[in-house]
Amino acid sequence: MPHLKSQAISVQTHLRDQVANALRAALIAGELRPGVIYSAPTLAAELGVSATPVREAMLDLAREGLVEAVRNKGFRVTEMTDKDLDDFTDIRTLIEVPTVGRVAATASAGQLEALRPLAEQIVTAAQGHDVLKYLEADHRFHLELLALAGNPHLVEVVADLRKRSRLFGLGSLNETGRLVSSAQEHVELLDLMLAGRIQEAEDCMRRHLAHVRTLWADGQADAVADASVLRLSR
After folding, report:
1. Cα angle vertex 54, ends 50, 56, to 5°?
2. For burial by CB atoms within 10 Å, which of 29, 44, 154, 213 has the most?
3. pLDDT tens across 19-63, in order?
4. Which of 129, 138, 114, 137 is nearest to 176 (CA)?
5. Which domain-ending residue is among 20, 55, 79?
6. Is the Cβ–Cβ distance between 55 and 49 less than 8 Å?
7. Is there a single domain that holds both residue 95 and residue 211?
């Protein structure tokens, strides 16, 4: 698994955090499959670390709802249903759409323009098929935009929702270039907000979240299909 390599772990940052990031990357790329049980020693061997930081990292992911502990066996990657996808999208829509309207009405042009490098990084990453940089820039853009509303608790809630919205198999969608149109919506949103077109900005955010929901569904379907092929080939 490309994202579970020993060279991906360095001593420069906390080992537990490094391992958790590597496991998240493997989840996103579809290398760790929903419904499959993985043991800490097996993952540790692939990462070139001891089992202890892997167990600690897995407990962090369990608190985020990404995996669940299986007694005496390891951890199972949790599966997300269509209802889960709909529920997450509904909550984010209820929060982010009106917040974008508020920010468009109150933020300065300088505050909004400061987000343009992130919006452009998202597009560049999508065009370059770099899914991890895409997600990192996307995460920062959304949370920094929402932070302009001045409510840190709101930002915390959305950050938690984003963690739980596992983008299983997103790597395969990225290879087809399907992330580019979603990426470009960030630039469109920023331009509408800067122009003071509040209703259109809200509509853009609503459309963007619906687009993301579709990507979640397609990515998960690909991951499940790939897992089925693996089971049948054994």
Report:
1. 120
2. 29
3. 988 888 787 767 888 888 999 999 999 999 999 999 999 998 888
4. 129
5. 79
6. no
7. yes
